[in-house]
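[Automated response] Your request has been received and processed.

Submitted sequence:
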Amino acid sequence: MSTHAPVPAAASGAASGALLLCRAEPDSVAAVAPLLGERMALVAAGGEWSVLVPEGGPWRYGGEPVDRVVTGWAAALAVGAPWPVLALWWDADRSGYTLASGFRRPVGYVWLADGTPAGEDEATRTFAARLGLDPVLDVQALDRLTRPDPGADARARLRGLLAVLTRAGVTLPDGLDPGTPTDRLGEAAGAVPGAA
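Generated structure:
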C-alpha cells in the first residue's frame, strides 16, 4: 500500500505556463480571443505585437498537457486571422514553442528541462521564414538554440528565442518571463497599464 497521496492536477500544473504572442494590435486580438473560451489578459508586446496570458484552467485543473492546449489555441486564433500566432509554453519537464499561421501546418520546437534540444532543426528555418526574420543572422541565432549547451536550460532557450524576436519588434512587459508559473504571469499582466 502506497503512503504517497496523489498529486492533484492543480499542483502538478503549478510550474506550467504559456504566452500567446500575436503579430497584431491588441484591438484586433481582442475581437477573436473570446472564441477560445478561456479567460486571458491581453497586453501590447511591442509595436505590432500583442500577448495573451491565459489563466491555464485546462492544464492547471483539467490535467491537459500545456503544449497540446496552447498549440490548439494558436491554430484556432491564426486560422481566420491575417497574422501569425506564436505559443510559448513550459512545464516541469519541457519547454517549447509553436507557430501557427493561416491554414499551414503549425511548426514548433521542444527542449527538455535541462535545455537538451528535442526538436527538428528544419523547424527553426521554417519558423524564421514564416515570420520574415533575417535569413542569415536570425537563422544563425536560432540554429544555436538547437545545439547542445550544458549552460542553458529550457528557460534560457526560450529567453534566447525571445532575444531573436526582439529584432522583429517583440517586447514583453515586465514579469511576463518564460518559466514563470501561470498565476504569477496573470498577476504581472494585470499590472500592465492598458491590460484588457
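Summary generated for your ticket: Strands lie at 17-22, 40-44, 50-54, 85-90, 94-100, 107-112. The longest strand covers residues 94-100.
If you did not submit this request, please reply to this message.
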